[in-house]
Amino acid sequence: MPAPNSNRRVTMRDIAKVAGCHYTTVSLALRNHPGLPKKTCERLRALADKMGYVPDPMLASLTSYRTSLRPASFRAVIGWITNHPTRNGWRNVKIFEDYFLGAEKRAQSLGYQLKEFWLRESDMTTERVSQILRSRGINGLIVAPQPEATMAVDIDWSLFSAVAIGYSLTRPHLHLVCPNQYRGIRMAMSEIAARGYQRPGFVMARTSDERVENNWSAGFLTSQHMLRDEDRVPPLLLDAWDNTRFKEWLAQHRPDVLITKYEEVPVALQRMKYAVPRDIGVVFLTLVEPGGKRSGIYENPGKVGAGALELVTSLMRQGERGIPDAPQQLLIETSWIEGQMVRKARGASKAERTRAGK
């Protein structure tokens, strides 16, 4: 063990010598490994703190690098937790599947497997799902977006490092990764202003806005403060699509561009003989693909999934399990896609106008 006031680092072997155990036990305890008794982890971590142990960041980086070069015959599994009424129901929402594909690709590059676990299997209980996951050596979980805007999931969270995608998991509050919807709609408002639109209208299902923790309506109303009073169109929030209410709202407030997620909007405009974008512009907040005719926001779902995978593996390396006291939020920036449903920006060159759509 280093002498007092020594400049030499305290090592795991030093701690193990004082504790009377093997240094690998100390390594596991410092990572809060679930295979060790909780009291053992606490005792060895307390001893490490007392002895002044701090990890060597350069050694950790070297270890991570050497591990990444080593061909893996066995890949640890990270669980992808789904909760839709049917096993593959979540795959019907393309952005959800893109989250998965982004996470899966990043998992493979880091030496992990990503495996789906459906919480609504017959006879599945809180105890059983936790037991199944632990029996398969799974320490990390990514909770996929829930089928409803606000839902709870009951698992023995103390056993796992866990991250949620999106805001729909409202209990417990885990670390989460999400597109930055607030900045996304503000980006959309800035882009349509650059194209000469003066009276933007916001048309959204109430539950869709709730699913993103009202970040869309918040961003719209914040940007709307920059408009003249007479150009501030009240948002149209619907419990369900209502063609009559939409037509009345459109006639009363006369917006010149619509920001929406509703597939029904362009259909209704066509039936009302509006030409897009000649008569009115349309901006979608969740484009399925970054190309094509539609204008709007692409939420980079592959990067969201990759971010969730990176965050959960970071928690696993640090031995952070359970429900966090202060959950982190990792917000992934969105992208503006030019499309063909809004006017071109005033004063922009052709290259500049098409930049975002490439």
UniProtKB/TrEMBL annotation:
This is HTH lacI-type domain-containing protein. GO terms for molecular function: DNA-binding transcription factor activity; transcription cis-regulatory region binding. Residues 10-64 form the HTH lacI-type domain. It comes from the Bacteria. Keywords: DNA-binding, Repressor, Transcription, Transcription regulation. Pfam families: LacI (PF00356). It comes from Termitidicoccus mucosus.
